[in-house]
What does this fold into?
Amino acid sequence: MKVLVTGGSGYLGTHVRRHFQADDFSRTSGLDILNTSDAAAVADYDVVIHLAAHLDKSPDAAEQVFLTNVEGTINLLKNLRRDSVLIFASTKDVYGRFADNFAEVPEGCRAVGAVAGPGRPGSGRRGRASAAPRGPRRGRGPGG
It folds into this structure.
């Protein structure tokens, strides 16, 4: 099984890459998720662990943060094989201005459009991973 870690040169990525004996996809390795030609490389992998991100809370960096975190992820998704697995990890900072409201984001947090999943209210499951993707909940939080 071929495993790739985006952001594989960062602190967490280095440990994850070592654990899974995975390849590195990062600017340090000469690859960038914003480069569509580079992103095409994910098609060669069975598992992609997506840790690459740009974190900068200054208002001046908002566009670059969005480009890297959203457009970069879209570039990867466009090239992912149908039979491959994507594992996406992020920080609590995706909650934007609400990020500092939580020392830890609880599993049942719906204040910002939580996604149903194992052990979460309304998911119908406890502690088991689901193979079926789930969309955002409706009726609560931004855009819901």
